[in-house]
Structure formats: C-alpha cells, structure tokens
Write a structure and sequence with these properties.
about 60 residues; mainly alpha; about 85% helix
Length: about 60
C-alpha cells in the first residue's frame, strides 16, 4: 500500500485531530496572558488538517499532471 492510499484512508482522522487542536489552541490563546502558545497549537492543527490534501497536491505535481 503506498503513502497516498494511507493518507486517503486516514484523511478524516487528520481532519478531526487538526480541528480539535485548532479549537483547543484558540481557546488557550483566548484565556492565557501569553497568546503565542495557543496560536502555535492552532497553526499546527491547521497543518495536520490540511496534510492529506497537501500531499495529494504535491504528489500530483510530482507526477506531472
């Protein structure tokens, strides 16, 4: 099984984990005096949530179409 099939199979998991991390990071940024840790967690959650789509884009461009 190649990597793109694994990303396709687990795309819902990536989206849910990324969304929970994003909401948790924004809640942390709202409640704490230092906001950068919350914003960092939110950014990491966004990257995790978009990882399957980004992988498909990179793989498609690498194949030339």
């Amino acid at each position: 099984m190649n990597v793109s099939l694994w990303f396709e199979a687990f795309s819902m998991v990536f989206n849910i984990v990324g969304m929970v991390m994003g909401v948790g990071g924004l809640m942390l940024a709202q409640r704490s005096p230092r906001r950068w840790p919350g914003y960092s967690i939110t950014t990491l959650g966004f990257v995790i949530a978009t990882l399957p789509i980004s992988w498909q884009l990179v793989a498609g461009l690498a194949q030339g179409g």
